[in-house]
Amino acid sequence: MSNFLNYFLSLNIEPKDLELQNPNFITKNYKYNQADILYKLKNKDIYFLIEEQTYVDYSMSYRILNYCVETIRLAVEDKIINKKYYKFPKVIPIVLYIGNNKWTASTSFADCEVDYPELNFNSLETKFKLIDINNFEIENLLNLKSMIANTMILEKCKNNNEVIENLTKIIENLDDKSKIRKLKQIVSYLYSDIKNIKEILNLIEESEDDETMSTVAERLREEYKNERLIGISQGISQGITQGISQGISQIIKNMLNYNVPEKDIIKYTKIKKQQLEKIKKEFETEIK
Predict the structure, then answer these.
(1) In the listed set 108, 135, 162, which residue is the last one of a domain according to the structure?
(2) What local confidence, expressed as pLDDT, does residue 65 receive?
């Protein structure tokens, strides 16, 4: 977390200066809310609130406003706050956006309020720092040599192929083989639904004993390549056997979801371009 804050906020915080807080809040209307991460500077009423977001949420500025208010409310409980020189806690909200589409929502609650030109000030100026991983190159994140940066790299992946390619880069870039266990935990958490996740985790573990990381990297690529071709073949065969066009349609939607190139979809499914365009429109409608 100190590496994260120092890099993205240009701070200079030591790990020992941070205290992890409970990010669960019960608001006054008894509605349960939960921020992803909440840290506090030791001996200072300064909080870093981090919310991870996978899609563009136009209510985010309102959500962040609530999180900040609740953080302050809990921090000042049982304290005498009606003194002249009392300073309320400072909450620094950060949104870590890992979605594929461009972030288009406002980062300020004031921008989302109803306009009232007669007033020359905004009633609430709460803003959050937006960190959009789409704005960072893989190489820049690799240079950070931190597990948070490695997690962000894997979050940037849009399909299984990118998962394998970037995972090999991370393994080759590790400066401490003791981080292999942490990497396994991250991969297991992010990609538990990948069919060959166990094989991938085993290969990662083997890299602790290998003389070179490149050998494991190459095996990971081969593992993915074989699994991908077998999976596509089995899926198509199953759909044909069932004789259900809906099954083929779903397979194609799955391939679109993993950003398989159109030329490969046509090659492996034998579908016509016109049919593919129709299924693409259905798929785009479903994910909206």
Answers:
(1) 135
(2) 93
**Residue that finishes a domain, picked among 80, 105, 135:** 135
Q: Which tokens is 208 given?
A: 């602790």
Task: Tally the domains of the chain.
Answer: 2
Answer whether residue 154 is part of any domain: no
The whole-angstrom separation of Cα 64 and Cα 51 is 8
- Residue 88's domain comprises 2-135
H-state helical runs in 145-272 = 147-156, 160-173, 180-190, 197-206, 213-242, 245-257, 262-269
Residue 29 lies in a domain: yes
Cβ within 8 Å of residue 58, ≥6 positions away? 105, 106, 112
Q: What's this model's pTM, rounded to 2 decimal places?
A: 0.65
The reply to whether 230 falls in a domain is: no
Query: Would 217 be classed as within a structural domain?
Result: no
**Can you tell me the distance from the alpha carbon of 157 to that of 170, in angstroms, rounded to the nearest whole number?**
13
Residue whose tokens read 């034998």:
270
Please check whether residue 49 is in contact with residue 131, taking contact to mean a CB–CB distance below 8 angstroms.
Answer: no
**Conformation bin of residue 167: beta by default, left when phi > 0, alpha when psi is -120 to 50:** alpha
125-140: average pLDDT: 89
Among 9-23, 114-128, 213-227, whose mean pLDDT is lowest?
213-227
The more confident residue out of 81 and 208 is 81
